Amino acid sequence: MLRRLLLILIVLPVSVGLVMLAVANRHSVPLFVDPLSGPEGASLDVPLFLVVFAAMIAGVVLGGVAAWLSQGRYRKAARQSAREARSAHAEVEELRAATREPSTRPALAHRRDAA
């Protein structure tokens, strides 16, 4: 239900807005490949909406990469904690198995039984 509500309230209006942007900006604009050479340099004529969409996609990708890189220390700590937890779990199981095994030493009789 929440996913459907999210679709209706956020994704649908954003999609309609992007389609309207693309339709309204179909005219070609020069995209200069070498900005230092000025207007006589190499350029491509591309629709404006492609430039805007490419900039948005690049921003999302770069933001995701930046977030992923900044969270590296937390992922490292999580991996280390998982290794320690596995080691502790294995040690606990080993100790449980050792306490369940019958002792090879003879059991001591209680003093009252000996009298």
Mean of residue pLDDT values: 86
Shape: elongated
Spatial sequence of strands, sheet with the most strands: 1-2
SSE class: mainly alpha
Largest sheet: 2 strands, antiparallel
Percentage of β-strand residues: 5-15%
| SSE order, one letter for each helix or strand | HEEHHH
Distance between the termini: 77 Å
Describe this structure in words.
The protein has 4 helices and 2 strands. It is mainly alpha-helical and 115 residues long. Strands 1-2 form a two-stranded antiparallel ribbon. The radius of gyration is 34 Å and the shape is elongated. The mean pLDDT is 86.
Please supply descriptive tags for the structure shown above.
single chain, 115 residues, mainly alpha, two-stranded antiparallel ribbon, 4 helices, 2 strands, elongated
In short:
The chain is mostly helical and 115 residues long.
Helix-strand layout with pairing:
Elements: H1 2-24, E1 28-32, E2 43-47, H2 48-70, H3 72-100, H4 111-114
Antiparallel strand pairs: 1-2
